[in-house]
Amino acid sequence: MGTAFPDPRSDGDAGCRVCTDFKSWTKKSHPKPGPKNQQSHSTSSQPHLGPEPKAQAAPPLESGRKDGTRRVVAELGTGVVMARADGSTVECPPDSEALGRSTWTFLHTMAAYYPNQPTVPQQQGMQIFLRQFAQVYPCGHCASHLRSEMKTDPPRVNSRADLSQWMCETHNKVNDLLGKKIFDCSKVDERWRDGPKDSTCD
């Protein structure tokens, strides 16, 4: 035993986004300032927030879709799930790009919550996981490329910072091959752990 990562909540990390739902995380990480007095309900002390938005009714079913699914996902209570800006829908099963986006989200988040000072069993566990992951990833040529990269540049599992940087650099190699934008690896904590100050994420 002893290979599991510690729960980020156990060390007083109230900003653990993956440990709770979006609405609760937002309240903890970006608390609203209290009212100037208990009798006033004015929002003047919160100019950057404004009044709480009212939940909107679910949009009508989109006509012409055989499966009857909705183009826009309504507010779910744990946060607002927004449709794509271009109005497109998510298709299933996922293609390599959709799978890749979800996979990188998982891998970056896993690295972001890796211990700062991992034990030897934790380091070994991460190395084993990444090796096995590169064997079973459903996209064959993607998995082959990852295995090749790991031979050239083995995962750096000595600390959370090292693993997060390695993950970012590895992802950027893929982005470069695909002609995509290179991510600034100095912002991995902001993107995958702490969240940007304005609560937005590209």
TrEMBL record:
- Entry EC number(s): 1.8.3.2
Where are its TM segments located?
A: none
Kindly report, in one word, the top-level EC class recorded for this enzyme: oxidoreductase
Q: Where is the ERV/ALR sulfhydryl oxidase domain?
A: 92-192
Output the superkingdom of the source species.
Answer: Eukaryota
Question: What is this enzyme's catalytic activity, as reactions?
Answer: 2 R'C(R)SH + O2 = R'C(R)S-S(R)CR' + H2O2
| Pfam families to which the protein is assigned, alphabetical | Evr1_Alr
- UniProt-annotated location(s): Mitochondrion intermembrane space
Segments carrying the region annotation (Disordered) are 24-69
Q: Name one GO molecular function term.
A: flavin adenine dinucleotide binding
Give the organism the record lists.
Answer: Dimargaris verticillata
Keyword Nucleotide-binding (UniProt)? no
The Swiss-Prot or TrEMBL record lists the needed cofactor(s) as: FAD
Question: Which UniProt key words apply to this protein?
Answer: Disulfide bond, FAD, Flavoprotein, Mitochondrion, Oxidoreductase
Protein name per the record? Sulfhydryl oxidase
GO CC terms? mitochondrial intermembrane space
Question: Do you know which InterPro entries this protein is assigned to?
Answer: ALR/ERV, ERV/ALR_sulphydryl_oxid_sf, ERV/ALR_sulphydryl_oxidase
Q: Residue ranges under compositional bias (Polar residues)? A: 36-47
